[in-house]
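Following up on my earlier message about zinc ion. Here are the inputs again, as you asked, copied directly from the submission form:
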Amino acid sequence: MNNSGNDYVIACPAGCHSGFRETDIVSPEGPLKRCPDCGQLVSQCSEELFWNSMKEFDDPKGTLPSGRAAVRLLRHTKKLMKKIERLSGKKRNDISLLDVGCSSGAFISTAGDLGVNAEGVEPSQAPVRTAIKLGLKVYQGFLQDIRLPRESFDVVTLFEVIEHLKDPLNLLKECHRILRKNGLLVIRTGNADSWTVRFMKARWDYFSIAEHGGHISFFNPLSIQKIAKRSGFVVEDIKTRRVSFYQKGEIPLVCYRAAKLFSELLNRPAVWSGKGHELLAFLRKPY
Ligand SMILES: [Zn+2]
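Thanks, got it. Here's what our run produced:
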């Protein structure tokens, strides 16, 4: 069960130096481990399992949405750009944005339709080919290898990226280098210090590398604050939302619907208390 000694993640991804402690959240790879300084959780998966699980992202369709998903993406992008405009003091037509881990470019395409000058970076080849065919500006590779000019973007976005990284500190430092002064780094990831985790523990599918390829590192508002400071950013805003108690299929449908309704009632308190399982952080590169 426990494959200690073969672990891919050996140090706190937020940059702390204390040793890990085991938790009672037991995934098929063994109990998740917690950093006692910042509460960051990490998987005990091996390097081989990690890279095998990452192969699912080399898919030509990538993240391109259709139908209702496309409508939802447009709504979320509008809301996000409104907040970015407010925090940056710039209008969207004057904003240059880089989406790191952009897949086939769903977000940059939507942001581009709204007038943002949006580009992307993606390591997997198949979705990059799709993005380029769509006429999007996407670089293939890892951000640190591409060496984009310093201070060349107003906004960098990392959506569902840092939970895949053994050492996200290097990536955040590179984001800092390419951002203009007063620029924003927007991070979206799961919140391991959420009511969902307290209730569901390892049943939360976000912890499952089988269901979510490459998920090895689980942040919370405190570990985001720590990694932000260690990479030169100041925290502008951290918000969490959404609570879940059951996955669909775990319990009879009628019970699932009742639990879902209850979790929706808890959404607002989760937002107020920072205990939702979706975390969105806005970090600023200071002058
Ligand atoms: Zn830590």
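One observation from looking it over: The CA atoms of residues 92 and 116 lie 5 Å apart. Hope that helps, and feel free to reply on this thread.
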